[in-house]
Amino acid sequence: MLANPDTRLFVHRIAEHWAETNEAPSQPEGTRWRGSWAARCARWVAYNTAGEEPSNPPSVSSIWRMGLGSVVHELLEPAVQAWLKNDDSVQIQEEMTVELGQYGHGHIDLVLETVDGKKIVLELKTINGFGYKMAIERGEGPRHNAVVQGSMYAHAIDADLLVIGYLSLENISAGRASKFGIDDIGTFASEWHYTKEEFTPIAEAEVERLEGITSAIHDEGLVPIDIPRRFSHFDPDIPFPAEITAPSNGTWRDGTEFGKVWQCNYCDFQDRCVLDNLKEGKE
Question: Rounded to two decimals, what is the model's pTM?
């Protein structure tokens, strides 16, 4: 039997209430950008820091998908408390607020300090089943934006180690787990470690990039259309300084090289960006 949307009695009420009550946090006074903007397209950053209204605001389904991550994060606190109860060799601080550069800010999921003075930053992420399979089975590891965001946080507090943790919303099947040598926990949860030598250059480059974009808007009087559609310096999918030439489908070009990125189709400024591209005579 096919589900008939005209006969819904319950599920739409749950979904719509979720969307209404899951508002994005306000921007703290004196700040211009968030750590969660890590690795985003420079034009997207410009629209946001200029206070533009999204042309493609998140749908109820998008808010549901993104909000599930906050629910899973609620599992972190009791797990941490149980850890501390049985191990007095570490100190843990959750939800630490940090300054990033001159005008950025962020919230670290967890900071662990060991008895020998080492700091470890945990950035915990949820991910869909397909993305998790790509990370584990293909060895792609965590998504670039998660690494960049975590790198900025770890660098901000002079941490010794960055840990990116993934909790999947769908398990890898038992058969595939056996094929790839994945244990029970690994079918839905994994983590990757990055040393200071690895995360420092990523963090420094991204803080400089985001500070530069927001300064161009706030201090130099530029408008979003003046900001090129570029991604972060270390992005594996689009070589810097390539630009998005067709935001309608994510096509980028850099001389004779070209390709596509998926981010444009999920951007809440896509229609505005396409319109601006037409004004520039580029699409």
Answer: 0.90
